[in-house]
Write a structure and sequence with these properties.
Radius of gyration: 24 Å
Number of helices: 10
CATH architecture of the largest domain: 3-Layer(aba) Sandwich
Largest sheet: 6 strands, mixed
CATH topology of the largest domain: Rossmann fold
Order of helices and strands: EEEHEEHEHHHEHEHEEHEEHEH
Oligomer: single chain
Distance between the termini: 31 Å
């Protein structure tokens, strides 16, 4: 559905996106996982035509719902407005008017997409329900909490019933209740068959929501796969940290203990612990740390994900 090929975008001496290629299939949720400054927001800007690439191309195709397509390159801007109307964007920088109420914001943005009359009214009600803001419909957005604004920001992106939605850091600065509400809304979008691009620097979000995850840093996609595929290829081995019983056997250990503390890596930690137990090794405490997306990021970049925030 979305095909980005060799996208490059620089701002002065800074290369924000460096020869990026990405394919997003219809109905798929792709995560762009990387620290602040990795180039995620610039990538979204080029995908929707808000930012012109220095080179490269973007093509968006719609299959089941129609035959429209659009192409963008360094020398051209989006020419097919019909296609753009089938895309929703919830930017990291909130696109809301604080002096307007929640309902007035939705009415304004819905009218920009050509909605009017009964259709616009029904979509306002539906998206207020999606955002969990029906009881605050007539309150000025300036009075809203950060989480409420984020939820309304997503509602605005959904007002025109898009087939593709791009969510740029949608949970930044929100409270746990709003974050969980946003997750539930995204999971409903997935059930409804929307195609979603989700940028985040929170690994647990990517792991929960995304069919595939692109690890991104310094404008490059370093790896792209399912979470399971990334863990298998780049996650490294599991780490076992144990406290040995004073009367435990200390023969045939996989590593030299430091006093009563034993730490070792294993491809199959459960099997290794079982082997040690059968050999007479007794544990007072045991912890197994399996590889996760942070260990994948560390393997690919040599530094912790949040070092760049």
């Amino acid at each position: 559905m979305i095909e980005a090929t060799n996208l490059v975008k620089s701002f002065g001496s800074l290369t924000a996106v460096d020869n990026l290629s990405l394919t997003i299939k219809e109905g798929e949720t792709i995560g762009l996982l990387g620290p602040n400054g990795a180039g995620k927001t610039t990538t979204i800007g080029m995908l929707v035509g808000l930012t012109s690439p220095d080179s490269g191309n973007v093509e968006i195709r719609f299959g089941k719902a129609g035959k429209s397509s659009t192409q963008r390159s360094a020398t051209g801007s989006p020419s097919n407005n019909t296609v753009r109307q089938r895309i929703g964007v919830a930017p990291q920088a909130l696109s809301l008017y604080g002096e307007l109420t929640a309902a007035e914001n939705l009415k304004f943005f819905g009218s920009l997409y050509g909605l009017a009359g009964g259709k616009l009214k029904s979509r306002i009600e539906e998206t207020l329900e999606i955002a969990g803001l029906k009881d605050r419909r007539n309150d000025r957005v300036a009075t809203f909490s950060g989480g409420m604004k984020r939820r309304l920001n997503i509602a605005v992106a959904l007002i025109h019933e898009p087939e593709v939605i791009l969510l740029d850091e949608p949970t930044v600065g929100v409270d746990p209740q709003s974050r969980n509400h946003i997750f539930e809304r995204i999971e409903q979008m997935q059930k409804d068959g929307l195609t979603i691009l989700y940028t985040t620097h929170y690994m647990e979000e990517a792991q929960r929501l995304c069919d595939r995850v692109a690890i991104m840093d310094h404008g490059k996609i370093l790896a792209l796969d399912t979470v399971e595929g990334l863990l298998e290829k780049h996650g490294g081995r599991s780490v076992v940290s144990a406290t040995l019983h004073p009367q435990s056997s200390r023969t045939n250990l996989p590593a030299e203990p430091q006093g009563d503390l034993l730490r070792f890596e294993s491809d199959d930690p459960i099997k290794e612990v079982a082997r040690l137990t059968e050999a007479g090794v007794r544990f007072q405490g045991l912890q197994i740390a399996n590889s996760d997306l942070e260990s994948v990021f560390l393997e690919l970049t040599g530094r912790q994900l949040r070092d760049s925030q």
